[in-house]
Sequence to fold (298 residues):
Amino acid sequence: MRAIWTGAITFGLVNVPVKVYSATEDHDVPLHQVHDEDGGRIRYQRRCEIDGKVIPYEHIAKAYDDGERTVILTPEDIASLPSERSREIDVVEFVPNDQLDPLMFDRSYYLEPDSKSLKAYALLRKTLEDEERTAIVEFALRQKTRLAALRVRGKVLVLQTLLWHDEIRAADFPSLDQEPRVTDRELQLSSALMESFAGDFEPEKFSDEYQVELRKLIDAKLEEGDSVDTAATFGEEESEKKGGGEVIDLMEALQRSVERSRSTKSSSGSSASTAKKAPAKKAPSKKAPAKKSAKKPA
Fold:
């Protein structure tokens, strides 16, 4: 595993340096959308609804819509907000374990002790276990303040982010205001039925049957050759074919040029040969003036 964050648990004068790791991962088989006829990838574009243009990421701003009006927040506006850059996991209070509603739990993270904080880490873990308490902490992750529960799971400290109280909806259903009458006999039968399903929870006994069968289906199709080249789904193969066509056309053009050049040379050579065989007409000669002979010295 790779640490996603480093910091320190702090309470009072105690400081426990730790590394933070994601405790969970998604096991779903990743699927994407393609055109059913040719397998081409379906692309999503950031298109402006006013001018219809595809907008590059650097020109995209965030905005808030209240239903009637929209407030546009520029990157400068966002940068002006106070950013949370603290590397401390501050303990606010220690509460009894049973006071935490599981509905509040969000994401889970493992905390690994730094090599220099092994004793402080073990001391905090042991104290939480013995006192049967959970530490409520605040920390900053990705520039957001988080509320979280720090508790013990085996030998490791687990940090579980919590939803804020106003993020949990109230179960306000009128039908719950009515209290139907339940007889003792019905309650006994319900308890007996529940007892017949009773057991200890063992997570490893359960599996995601849909994902298992989906993986089997994909493997079977791959084994049977029922697949297409991935590069082709992005249109790369088609562009290569187009490029190849251009090369072929160029080669043909070059070949024709060479043949035409040879043909021209051949016809020009044959005309020159004919010209050599024909008798050349003599130009009228003019008598050159007689040279005076020089007298030899006596």
